[in-house]
Amino acid sequence: MRNEQDIIVRVRRTVTCGSDLHLLGGYIPFMERGDVLGHEFLGDVVEVGPQVRKHKVGDRVVVCSFVSCGKCWYCQHQQFSLCDNGNTNPMITENVWGAAPGGCYGYSHALGGFAGSHAEYIRVPYADQGAFTVPDEVPRRRVGHQTERGQALVAVGAEPA
User: Fold this and answer.
1) Phi, psi of 94, rounded to the nearest 5 degrees
2) Cα 35 from chain centre
3) Which pLDDT does position 100 carry in this prediction?
4) What is the DSSP string of 55-92?
5) Distance from CA of residue 148 to its chain's centroid?
6) How far apart are CA 140 and CA 122, in angstroms?
7) Per-residue model confidence as pLDDT tens digits over 11-66
8) Full-prediction pTM beyond 0.70?
9) What pLDDT does residue 28 have?
10) How far apart are CA 11 and CA 60, in angstroms?
């Protein structure tokens, strides 16, 4: 844990997103040897920073793929993928693309260098902003998720027939 607003999540379900193909194909620069991919996941909270208010150890959460603080101008205007504080390496994309998107899990050092969800554990910064509790009565195998505008849309029963 690096910051007081972090949680540590034990990953229980994760998927490879089609956008990961951009990383594997070299379209998104600044991947480094040993980087962990993955930005769509469900897991159990195993550690909670002292400033986290919405989560406790044992909570099951889905996490938004973009890292956003919830407090900057962009977040206040529900433009979470542009968060001023989510990308720890904004100069990379400013120099290459002319703009700095927010941070994203497992999506190269150009978008913050955050470890991805294809691992046993993952650090979730700004947990009160980007992690959403899944009710206990929803079986893990029946949860899919999509996040949009900082809100989690939990799909129950969305598994293949």
Assistant:
1) -60, -40
2) 15
3) 87
4) --TT-EEEE-SEE--S-SHHHHTT-GGG-TTT-S-HHH
5) 12
6) 18
7) 998 888 888 888 888 777 788 888 898 888 999 999 999 999 999 999 999 998 99
8) yes
9) 77
10) 10
At 140 the three-state DSSP class reads: helix
Band of residue 145 on the pLDDT scale cut at 50, 70, 90: low
Spatial separation of the C-alpha atoms in residues 69 and 87, rounded to whole Å: 10
Q: Which residues pair with 11 in a beta bridge?
A: 43
Tokens of 100: 């700095």
Tell me the CB-side half-sphere exposure of residue 22, using CA atoms within 13 A: 11
**Closest alpha carbon to 64 in 135, 133, 157:** 133
Helix (H) or strand (E) holding 123: strand 121-124
Enter the tokens of residue 30.
């600044």
**Dihedral sign of CA atoms 97, 127, 146, 31 in order:** positive
Nearest to 76 by CA among 146, 130, 23, 150: 150
Q: How many angstroms separate the CA atoms of 109 and 139, rounded?
A: 34
- Can you give the pLDDT at residue 143? 67
